[in-house]
């Protein structure tokens, strides 16, 4: 029995899917300790948008460390934080005419969501938050309460309340009729429904099955929030930072979120950082009211600032749109070839997916793909959806090679079915 099995908690998950001991990685490739090569179509679920060990970030980190840069500083001001904030303002916010205050929360996505929910409740003095079917917002209690998946929820051990659950766009054929019903109820003083503190939504539900919301539906959610002075929160933790072909996933959609949750890719190198973007009028925290030891790690600031260089022009985002289009076409062709009308393809930009409709089929495809040197994740109900999410910087040839492996794995599964 190896040390992982002997000593590490039963809670471990991904290592069971990918039984290898990884050692080295470069851009979209990962190598195990025996030198086997894997193409990474998982990219740390959106952390590794710029690939493994991107040279410019690595160099900046080495330089910072060599110069004895401050590694940890709670929420004190540092030169590294100044550089990051200035880059975020100059490259991301100002060109988009966005005015957000930046709150550095604890370093994982769920910390950002907790801060968002807490702030929305504080600002409005209300308790309920509207969340959607298949939502995934994190594992700490507040974020878990707005998450949909029963397996995760059942592990909470305490009631997960304070949430109104509505169908996401297209859920079970539902459109904005459920929003309409909520609107009616909120206008009716005898409905028993009180106005919520916030609506929290993902524009693409990545963990929930790569469910893509339409601009129209998202605007309707925002409009309902505005009508009742509820805050409109976009959780851009997995599909922000360029994944959909724009920096924020909600750009060019007529959306103007009050709070934006970000994490994963924002640290650039795979270093943990999470932020909550707050419209200035809602930045109603008193000093130190929401705190944490690891709010903004300087190494993440150093790499994260370098990562923002990718967004100084449209080059990377154009590539994301092109490669995303190619991924979609290839998946649609595979679906047509092998899906017997049972599979569907969904996605935006470089988060694409093939829904097999069956968790066992998707798990078998994942295993076959792994055996052939491809790391791919599953998501959605029972893990029935294969999520294709390579680093945005993946080389064309490697992308094609990975899609070929996926095609072979799916063809094998279709033949066995
Ligand atoms: N929100 C979304 C949309 C996510 O995809 C995730 C992580 N999968 C989280 C929140 C939670 O982030 P973390 O795991 O870093 O706490």
The gist of it:
The chain is of the alpha/beta class.
Number of strands: 17
What is the class of the largest domain in the CATH system? Alpha Beta
The DSSP helix count reads: 14
Q: What oligomeric arrangement do these chains adopt?
A: single chain
Low-confidence stretches: none
Helix/strand-derived class?
alpha/beta
Which range best describes the helical content: under 10%, 10-25%, 25-40%, 40-55%, 55-70% or over 70%?
25-40%
Structure description:
The chain is α/β, with parallel strands linked by helices and about 425 residues long. The chain folds into 2 domains: about 5-55 and about 315-415, Aspartate Aminotransferase, domain 1 (Alpha-Beta Complex); about 70-310, 3-Layer(aba) Sandwich (Aspartate Aminotransferase, domain 2). It has 14 helices and 17 strands. It has helices spanning about 5, 15, 45, 55-65, 80-95, 110-125, 140-145, 150-155, 175-185, 215-225, 300-310, 315-340, 360-370, 395-415; strands at about 20-25, 30, 35-40, 100-105, 130, 165, 200, 205, 210, 230-235, 260, 275-280, 345-350, 350-355, 375, 375-380, 385-390. The strands form 4 sheets. A 7-stranded mixed beta sheet has the order 4-12-11-10-7-5-6. A 4-stranded mixed beta sheet has the order 1-2-3-15. α4 (about 55-65) runs antiparallel to α11, α5 (about 80-95) packs parallel to α11 (about 300-310) and α13 packs across α14 (about 395-415). The chain is globular. The relative contact order is 0.16. The chain binds 4'-deoxy-4'-aminopyridoxal-5'-phosphate (PMP).
């Amino acid at each position: 029995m190896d040390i992982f099995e002997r000593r590490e908690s039963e809670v471990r998950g991904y290592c069971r899917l990918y039984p290898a001991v990884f050692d080295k990685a470069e851009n979209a490739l990962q190598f195990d300790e025996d030198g086997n090569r894997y193409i990474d179509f998982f990219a740390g679920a959106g952390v590794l948008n710029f690939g493994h060990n991107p040279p410019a970030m690595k160099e900046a980190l080495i330089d910072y460390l060599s110069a004895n840069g401050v590694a940890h500083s709670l929420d004190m001001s540092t030169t590294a934080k100044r550089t990051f904030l200035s880059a975020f303002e100059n490259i991301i916010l100002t060109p988009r005419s966005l005015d957000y205050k930046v709150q550095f929360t604890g370093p994982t996505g769920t910390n950002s969501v907790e801060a968002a929910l807490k702030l929305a409740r504080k600002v409005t003095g209300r308790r309920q938050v509207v969340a959607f079917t298949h939502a995934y917002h994190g594992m700490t209690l507040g974020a878990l309460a707005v998450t949909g998946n029963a397996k995760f929820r059942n592990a909470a051990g305490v009631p997960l309340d304070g949430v109104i659950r509505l169908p996401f766009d297209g859920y079970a054929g539902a459109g904005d009729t459920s929003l309409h019903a909520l609107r009616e109820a909120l206008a009716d003083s005898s409905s028993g429904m009180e106005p919520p503190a916030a609506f929290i939504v993902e524009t693409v539900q990545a963990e929930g099955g790569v469910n893509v919301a339409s601009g129209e539906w998202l605007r309707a959610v925002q409009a309902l929030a505005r009508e009742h002075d509820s805050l409109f929160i976009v959780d851009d933790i997995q599909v922000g930072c360029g994944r959909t072909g724009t920096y924020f996933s909600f750009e060019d959609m007529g959306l103007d979120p009050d709070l934006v949750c970000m994490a994963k890719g924002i640290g650039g190198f795979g270093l943990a950082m999470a932020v909550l973007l707050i419209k200035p009028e809602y930045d109603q925290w008193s000093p130190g009211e929401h705190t944490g030891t690891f709010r903004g790690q300087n190494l993440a600031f150093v790499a994260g600032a370098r990562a923002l260089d990718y967004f100084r022009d449209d080059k990377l985002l154009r590539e994301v749109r092109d490669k995303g289009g190619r991924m979609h076409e290839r998946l649609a062709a595979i679906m047509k070839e092998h899906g017997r009308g049972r599979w569907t393809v969904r996605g935006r930009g470089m988060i694409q997916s093939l829904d097999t409709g069956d968790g066992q089929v998707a798990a078998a495809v994942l295993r076959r793909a792994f055996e052939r040197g491809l790391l791919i994740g599953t998501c959605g109900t029972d893990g029935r959806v294969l999520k294709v999410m390579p680093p945005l910087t993946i080389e064309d040839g490697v992308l094609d090679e990975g899609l070929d492996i996926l095609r072979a794995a799916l063809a094998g599964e279709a033949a066995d079915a």
